[in-house]
Design a protein that fits this description.
Layout: H1 3-10, H2 16-61, E1 68-70, E2 75-77, H3 98-103, H4 110-114, E3 139-147, E4 150-156, E5 173-174
Antiparallel strand pairs: 1-2, 3-4, 4-5
């Protein structure tokens, strides 16, 4: 046997060309898979938010206390006692606003606790407020027959986090208008 044949038999590992070809193939597959995964994740978050706001609006509409709660002072809209248009959490929690703590009647524990909603851990923040898939608290508004025939509307600011009243807020997710 000549030395060249012996070198071919004992060669271990891959050549640089082989490694570069494998890296090129992996990069091509990744460039296709990552955008597809991101688009799927975004659609999934939007669908989760739509289901959540619709379910909360239904739970609120089915509860007898949804219009007003009488505290020691003036009457307040239930589930938004501090009037910031954000659904209340548990006023006993340390992160609750001072306005909510001051206005909450005895035994009031916020929407999630009072209606005994079975939400996943990622759908509730530390203060027991319901949050959208982007981690922002859900909003609530009242107006007679304004929200798909109902009086209560629940909404998420959507992926961009801009207010529903902003002209560029086209991605808001509402309980009264289901977008395809």
């Amino acid at each position: 046997m000549c030395t060249e044949d012996l070198m071919l038999l004992t060669r271990k590992g891959f050549t640089l060309i082989e490694l570069l070809m494998v890296l090129g193939i992996v990069a091509a597959i990744t460039s296709i898979a990552v955008p597809a995964y991101s688009a799927h994740r975004d659609r999934s978050r939007i669908q989760d938010a739509q289901v959540l706001v619709t379910a909360l609006a239904g739970a609120i509409a089915g509860d007898g206390r949804t219009v007003f709660i009488c505290t020691d002072g003036p009457m307040r809209r239930a589930w938004d006692l501090d009037e910031d248009e954000i659904i209340d959490g548990d006023p006993a929690h340390s992160s609750a606003s001072a306005a909510l703590k001051a206005r909450a009647p005895q035994g009031y524990a916020g929407l999630v606790n009072d209606l005994d909603l079975n939400l996943r851990a990622q759908q509730v923040d530390a203060g027991r407020r319901p949050v959208d898939p982007w981690g922002r608290p859900l909003h609530i508004r009242w107006q007679r027959n304004a929200f798909g025939g109902g009086d209560v509307g629940v909404f998420s600011l959507g992926p961009d986090g801009k207010s529903i009243d902003a002209p560029t807020a086209v991605d808001d997710i509402t309980s009264w208008e289901i977008k395809p």
